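Re: your question from the hallway

Yes, I did run it. Sequences:
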Amino acid sequence: MSSAVVSTPAAQGRPFVFDGDAVSEVCAPSGGQRRDSAEDQQSPLACVLQSTINNQQSKIPPARVTPASQLEIRPTPEMVSSGVVAIDALTGGLPRGCLTEVCGPASSGRTALLLAALAAATRRGEFCAVVDASDALDPQSVAAAGVDLERLLWVRCSGDSPQRERSPRRRPSTSLRADSDTENHSRQVNQNSEELVGDRVGRRFEPRSSKSSSENSLEQVLRATDLLLESGGFGLIALDLADVPPQAARHIPLTTWFRFRRAIEYTPTILLAVEQRPIAGSCSSLLLQLGSPDRPPQRTDATFAEPSHAQLFTGLDITTELVRSRLERKPAGSVTAFASKTAWTG
Amino acid sequence: MPFACIYVPNFPVAAALRAEPELRARAVAILEGKPPLETIVAVNEKAGGMGIALGMTKAQAELCAELALRPRSALQESAAHAALLDCAQSFSPCVEDAACDTALLDLAGMESLLGSLPKISRAIHSRAGALGLEANVAVASNPDAAVLAARGFAGIAVIAGGKEAEHLGPLPTEVLFANGVDGDEKKAAARLLETLDRWGIRNLRGLAALPEVSLSERLGQEGLRLQQLARGAASRTLVPVEAPPVFEEAVELEHPIVLLEPLAFLLNRLLEQICARLGFRALATQELRLTLELENFSPFHQRSSVNFVRTLRLPLPMLDTKVFLKLLQLDLNAHPPGAPIVKIHLAAEPARPRSTQAGLFLPPSPEPEKLELTLARIAGMVGENKVGALEMLDTHHPEGFRMRRFVAEAPGKSSHEKPPGEAEGRSTVTALRRFRPPRRASVTLENGQPVHLVCPKNVQGDVLWRAGPWRFSGDWWEREAWSRDEWDLALQNNALRNGEDISFCRLVHDLLGGGWFVEGMYD
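Structure:
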């Protein structure tokens, strides 16, 4: 019986005792048991090189080297209609389980595209959520776009936390929700008393924060998005950051976008971010730029000569450029255009 | 026909221990009466072993340091009694509410459903234990024999038909009388027991062996009735009670609570009891009502009570203790009581559990329990009226909408998958992005037409194009009448980078209050 020391991380310094036949795995002995395969007929130099390579590889933890055959193949995400025919032709639709960014300046058609996507999703019977950083959503526009209001959850972030608004001197506001019932008969508490249930151990009323309103609303947006992604079950979750200044929006760390992307991976949820400038970096699978400095938004009718009371704002001509797509559709730089109409145009 | 009896000995103590299970290992006595004349009305075995007797005063009992004294609580006893009935009704539809500590069940036909009588007895005993009640369970061929056996034998007793007299014989004569009687009934019972004791009759066998004629001559019909009971030969039908299901639990605190963590601990216990009782009746709940009695001192330092009530209405019937606890915690975080708590009362409105038919091809929808927690958390961040679904109001007012609760109900067939032709024919709608509140603007007019606009946050510039004014007004019969002229403007925004950005906005002139506002941007 022969013996050999194999220098593996698990067995460093511990001699293994092999049966003589097994030694041939390291290298083929010159006179002994040899395989019948022609590949094993190596020169002594090749044999030494092979054994050196094997020894080096044995020092590398197995987890670092994954065979290519075992690499996870990410399936192509399912594409669904965005609600705009031109966008569907350009990108194939919106990808499920991916982050899509829609960027552009004011009046470039971002919100029109957002509402079209919401309408398409609710028509498919899916539940949608809009996390509105600036509380800018117009219910009449939403209804005119054909969004099923019963399937739309609207989170209105304004940067003011309810605890900051609440004070002992103010009565609890009567909610518009008919099923929110507050039968509060508690007396007003002495301001000096610290023994308030719920005010100890970190549950005090929040002190006035030095953060700006936009920072607070961004914080609310990110936390609300986290909660909605964790809850699951939504077909489309939209982050409306269109009115957030780009300087503030850039403060959202990339790790946050990465976390969002990972949260929706392999789920049927579409995460749509509407903003002024791209901020998610490589975390977004699809990046659309609406409008451009060279092509300001146009009206569909451009007659200036008539008096103002004879004029009518009928809609916008929207230009869309596919800036980036990881989905191998149209090549980057492809442009399309479509028109949006105001609700009173018909 | 077999009958079962569930009997809870030392019921006042059992009700208190149900609210505070950690006292089970200790000697416990229950006090009743107006201070300082409180006396002990019930003790558990350990307290009895230490020499604590009924009728002792509080001062006498307090000499024993290891004794836990608790005031008698009608609320806790009511909750325990309701739990007892729930336990009984989960095994039989025919239940008699014999006493606050006794419930009788008709087990006719139950053997084919639930198994043999011993198995049913064990199940009843186990379920009563799950509800916090240490009960005696007895099964006999008539209700009264079952009651006597439950009072006399601890644990589980099953008496075969025809052998009632043999099994009941060794029991003392005290079991013939219920514990909870007061006043004249108690005196009459005491007199009868004294008489029987003088005759040397100390168990039911002795009473059963007495001659009937002589017994009736001395004790009358009451004596004959007691003899029938002792022989196990009494026969009657149950008087079932269909009490309205009330699912309430309460606990009175020895020391006021000032922190939310111990309150959450107690709420969890109450919720577990309520959910267990609902579950045994195959019910769920859609409304939880939490009433906290707060400690309150008036200016003259006299303690008075104030109630703090929170009602939790759920979109769908649910039965999940953890979800309920989390929702209550979030609600109390958002609306703290503001004073120490001395009593907690929790009630649940029963409802039929929801039944949903899942489908392979239905679009995804959020789970109701998860969604409710998520919405509660978000509401705690942004405010209760800042999260929900939209509901348009029947008005032309620009902000004619309200927020209502968002409920993710399963999509119906009619709303799902509208015809593709209808979807493709719909054009994209130009949306308005509102400023809330509208931004006050400084407008330069020429011939009554706006030509230049200055507004905070980079909404300013020369007016390239305008449409309007369009007059809107409404609610003239209300105090909140409104009247405004709207303009749609194309602005060349000089504040932005190269000064060539054009944006479209809506300018409003408030005719009643005066002032110009930019209401939003078209996007």
